[in-house]
Amino acid sequence: GHGGRPPTSLIAQLVDPTTPSLEAWHDYGGDLAVQTRICKFSDASDNFHIPEGLIYRLIVRLHSLSLGRERYEDSLHWTGGLVVDHGLHGRALIKLDRNRLIVSVKAVVPDYLLTLVIEEIKSHVAEFWQGVKVRTYVSCGGNCNDPEGRLAGQWEIERLFNRRLKGKREITCGSCDEDVVIQDLIRGVSAPIDSDERFAMAVEKLFSPVFTTQAGRQIVTKAEAYLQDLLQAFENETDSGPRLFTLTLGGMEFTLAPNGEFARCKVNFWCEYSREPVASQGGWSFEVRLSENWLVDTASWSNAMAIALSVSNPVAHTQRTFIEYPATKAIKQGRSSSLNIEDARTRLRELQDLIREQDPTFGGLVRVRHRGRYMWVHPRFEAEFNPGLPDMGGAEE
Predict the structure, then answer these.
(1) Closest by CA position to 38, among listed 142, 114, 126
(2) Per-residue DSSP letters for 121-165?
(3) Based on the domain organization, do 202 and 112 belong to the same domain?
(4) pTM of the shown model
(5) Of the candidates 344, 348, 354, the residue with the CA atom closest to the CA atom of residue 289
(6) In what residue span(s) does the C-terminal of Roc COR-B domain sit (predicted)?
(7) CA 125 and chain centroid, separation
(8) Which of 49, 70, 140, 323 is most deeply packed, by most CB within 10 A?
(9) Domain containing 369: what range?
(10) Is residue 179 part of a domain?
């Protein structure tokens, strides 16, 4: 059910123009770190303006993070902004301020949710307002050197990283003309790198001992961030099949077939929404024969995916050492350090093709569209992702 929520196509028509009480934001996580980004929207002529209907569309796009996702009455949004919540990963306040949009996050690791929200804003703007560019800025905040303390400094994040790459340590504030240390401004901000680089970095980071020896919200959020980087690298592959899976061996030990080329493995696909294997939700897993080369080639990133799942969703009890033998062999052959994202995509498609011959539902999953992208979920969650398109016109009388 939708907890009393009206159809999503009507939500934009029910938005109150009055700013509500923001106790749900102000009273949340008093001991948590806070990070803020400023979004400005420029057209082809470099004029800044807020795209028409932006907040209405964001309310609909981010409805799965709404405070009212269980009970609509708990929603917190108005014509000038909204508050969203991502469980362990924090809470965000998104609000209009003149010709800019301010996004603030409270969390143990704010950068994850902050990046997620900013990326959703960018994707949505690209879909609906062709030619509009989203520029992200940081303010001077606690690093203001203005003798008058106006806190008026703003810097585009891309420019800060480019300047640091040139070996520059400081940048001048256009408001007060004082110099500010670049590192202070970008502390906690992820460097802008493409999805392929993030994929390789996620694989490397997830093998850090910290993910097997420590616990807590910070570790959970970091694991979730790296898992999202892995999944994003396989975005195109979701058109033909699921991308979230784990492998286990048929026996207690890794044994090859007599010809030394294949091993019997069990494949479990996972619901991306509930983060549970579909086999535990009334679906089923698959037994397949996989080549030793396939296992060795995929050992690094498939193991990393299992580690991320086990940390970000501890109740799943994911087996992290499901293919120790091929992982060890990959390291010996130097194949784990030369991670090729295109090879990884090819291997995933091969697995999808192999399973599709047995079952086109991959164990009982359905493909849905979520925030402009495909993902595979258990059928009982399908309705959550088909709320209908928002109607931006006036309500019928």
Answers:
(1) 114
(2) HHHHHHHHSTT-EEEEEEE-GGG---TT-----EEEHHHHHHHHH
(3) no
(4) 0.72
(5) 354
(6) 50-188
(7) 17
(8) 323
(9) 195-385
(10) no
